[in-house]
Amino acid sequence: MKTLLSPEKRRWFIVAIIFLAIVFNYVDRQIVSILKPLLKSEFSLNDSGYAWILNIFTICYAVMYPVTGWMVDRFGARLVMFWGIITWSLACIGGGLSRTIGQFGFFRGLLGAAEPTNFPAQLKVIAIWFPGKLRATANSLCVAGSSIGAIIAPPTIAWLAITYSWKVAFITMGAIGILIAILWKLIYRDPPAHIMKEATTSSSGEPTAAFEWKQLWSTKSLWGILLIRFVSDPVWYFCLFWLPGYLQEESGLTLAQVGMFGWIPFLFADVGAIGTSAWSDKLVRKGYDPLKARKVMLTRVAVLSPLCALTPYLGGAWATLAVFSIVAIACLSWLFTISVVVAEAFPVKNVASVLGIAGGFGALGAVLFNYFVGQFMGTLGAEKIFIAMAFLHPLAVLILWTMVRPEKPKAKP
């Protein structure tokens, strides 16, 4: 395979494998939301107990995200990605073999600890294999796997659970992940020198210097990106972890109907987010500064997010699906493009670390939001939760414009 593929061709095969890994990364994490009523019955859980299961995953995810970002910058994407996929796949299989809530919680925590390897590794690969003129396209093709995973998860998991059992759904997805890890091991190589030089050289023709780990924390843009992920990620986590259950418990859909229709918002999210990424690239071609182009696009799509406040008042499953099909476009556009913002605001040697730290803060925001939803869904009512979500992306817009800018380390005397 090494002799058959030129570096220019190999990098697109690498993108394809990352895409597959992200697809099943999202399927594995979303299984619990699709099977929420079954799992609540199996393990005698209420909404607070279900939120506890979500937060075991999400806390481990938040803690390990910065660690894996550092590991990718330190040890490279090839090694970290391989062991990450292996570990999260075994954790998914373990969830299917669990007999007690303690065992199930352990394996969800292990899944959460392993899954963050995916995105820092993905961004690092894009940053060292692709020059700026191809980077946004390659990045969007990789991370499109997140919404494709969310699209195929409802029908696939529902079919496996209905035809066989919920345990088979977990075991099957874990086995597929192991095959993807083997494929990654066979295909991935570090880029040759000429590809690396093209990707890691600034527009001025000079190689970009890097921040030391401690120096990163003194940059205003890092804190801006952390706050953006902290306030905006919870809306996407709601789509993943709470929306399928909401459609069953509040809108009256059966598990089979969720399998038939629950993927619709994620299809809209995927198509819309790829479209908005292309739109921001078009702004660059028109002469916009790349970072400004991303800011303009994100600002305009953020106006879609407040529509979620209408959900409880429209009534019916189809109205909920319609509203969240629009809201999901905003959510995924932000998740797609904030990675590109990181790559454009920071030196290439720091991008995995920055994304890892930011992802951890995003997951921390989701932990707090999961707790809030689990505690108050049945008391305050869903409408209060939807109103709270409506303000999160507009707040992220304010942070984006006031705090995020290109960062370069100061020259040493």
From TrEMBL:
Protein name: ACS family hexuronate transporter-like MFS transporter
GO cellular component, one term: membrane
Coiled-coil positions: none
Subcellular location: Membrane
Transmembrane segments: 12-28, 49-68, 80-98, 141-162, 168-187, 222-243, 255-276, 297-315, 321-342, 354-373, 385-404
Species of the source: Pseudobacter ginsenosidimutans
Topology of this chain in the membrane: Multi-pass membrane protein
Matches recorded under SUPFAM superfamilies: MFS general substrate transporter (SSF103473)
Residues in Major facilitator superfamily (MFS) profile domain copies: 14-408
PANTHER family reported in the protein's UniProt record: HEXURONATE TRANSPORTER, SOLUTE CARRIER FAMILY 17
Gene Ontology terms, MF aspect: hexuronate transmembrane transporter activity
Domain of life of the source: Bacteria
UniProt keyword terms in alphabetical order: Membrane, Transmembrane, Transmembrane helix
Organism lineage: Bacteria, Pseudomonadati, Bacteroidota, Chitinophagia, Chitinophagales
A Pfam family per the record: MFS_1
